[in-house]
Amino acid sequence: MEIETVNGTSAEFSDDLTNRESESFIMLESEICNMVDGIYADTLTDYYGCTVIKFSSGSIIADINLLFDPETNVTDHILQKELEKEINRTGGNLSDGSSVFTVSSYQVMPTNECEMDIDDCSSFATCTDLGSNGFECSCNDGYTDVENYPVGTHCQLAIKTNAPSTTSMKTTTGTTLNQSTLGPQPVDNSIEWEFIVIITSACLLLILLSAIVILMIVRRYTKPSRKRFVSFRNIDQGLRHSSGSNSDETILHDVHFPWHDTPPSLYVYQSAILNEMTESEIMTINQAIDDESNPKTPEEESEANTTRSRSSSAARIHVLLDDLLEYVKGPEVRNDPGLEQDSVSTSA
After folding, report:
1. Where is this region: Disordered (predicted)?
2. Is the residue at 80 inside a domain?
């Protein structure tokens, strides 16, 4: 469309009209499209609007792209007739409501989407203009169509050698299709390997943590005992109480059982866990042994029994002492040569 005047003034082309972002381009495009909308919007229901492709010199020449529904039956002949009708009615003075444009020449023709670079073919496809029938896209050699996308709009590297497939897309004059700049989309196999590596690493970490926990439990229940024991030894003469310790942390308590029929070489020991027997309890045993060698009167024995019964520890010691004394006095023990030794050691 060639515009000769705008509001009665000669239309002059300026460099600003070559820049789509300039204020002059945007304003003139808006005025011209409003004018064109007034011609087609009321008569053609499939009409969507217009855009200015470019302005060029020669007064002002506007290349306009008319937008229609892709399924429309409107042809370039129908559009030409509607425009001629409006120009004849107004005498060539077309208005957008605020500005008046004098149109000296015009021509309606099918849009060459490929030439105007407004097709939606992939950058790895070839666009072929079909005139009033639109255009078609076909993937280049070595590329194939991506499934579930229109033919030629998305192309990827071909795995197998296939002939390029093509399809025709019917458009009408001025129909605009968005350009697709999507390139090849090869399958990325690295994602599967990354997933396998992550799963394997997680399993190894779980096994390591389980081994550490099991090791800690085993060490806890198999840890060597550090409990200390107490030993009682029979000394051949005199009643005395002394204590010491061996290299294995055994604490020795010497106790003499003053029975005349006990051989001097007989040693009797009884072990008890130190955690269960205090120093005070050991002293109580010594005192009890002393009492056993020095019989008490019935009144003293009753008082001693009352004192022992006041604590569970004393009662337990008393039972232990009775067993120990019976063991020492037993004739089978005194005559057992296997017990004759210089010392007795205890361990945990």
Report:
1. 288-314
2. yes
Of the candidates 186, 291, 286, 179, which has an alpha carbon nearest to the alpha carbon of residue 243?
286
Domain end residue (candidates: 169, 194, 209): 169
- Where is pLDDT greater, at 117 or 32? 32
Average pLDDT of the chain? 71
Residue 278's pLDDT band (cuts 50, 70, 90): low
Q: Which of 246, 234, 238 is nearest to 333 (CA)?
A: 234
Query: Is residue 183 assigned to a domain?
Result: no
pTM above 0.85, yes or no: no
- Cα separation of 317 and 36, whole Å? 117
Would residue 204 count as lying in a domain?
no
CA distance linking residue 167 with residue 118, whole number of Å: 17
Contact 155, 142 (CB under 8 A): no
The tally of domains found in the chain comes to 3
Domain ranges, residue 260: 229-334
Checking if the pLDDT of 239 tops 50, the result is no
- Please, is 138 exposed, middle or buried when counting C-beta atoms within 10 Å of its C-beta (0-12, 13-18, 19+)? buried
Question: Around Cβ 99, how many Cβ atoms within 10 Å?
Answer: 16
The rounded distance, in Å, linking the Cα atoms of 331 and 315 is 27
For residue 44, the domain's CATH number is 3.30.70.960
CA distance 169 to 226: 91
**What is the Cα–Cα distance from 121 to 139, expressed in whole angstroms?**
9
Q: Is residue 188 pLDDT above 50, yes or no?
A: no
Let me know whether 284 and 263 are in one domain: yes
Least confident of 99-108, 203-212, 230-239, 255-264: 230-239
Contacts of 182 (CB under 8 A, 6+ apart): 122, 123, 153, 154
Q: How far apart (Å, rounded) are the C-alpha atoms in residues 104 and 102?
A: 6
Q: Please, which residues have CB within 8 angstroms of residue 194's CB and are 6 or more apart in sequence?
A: none
State the average pLDDT over residues 31-58: 90
Residue 31 maps to a domain: yes
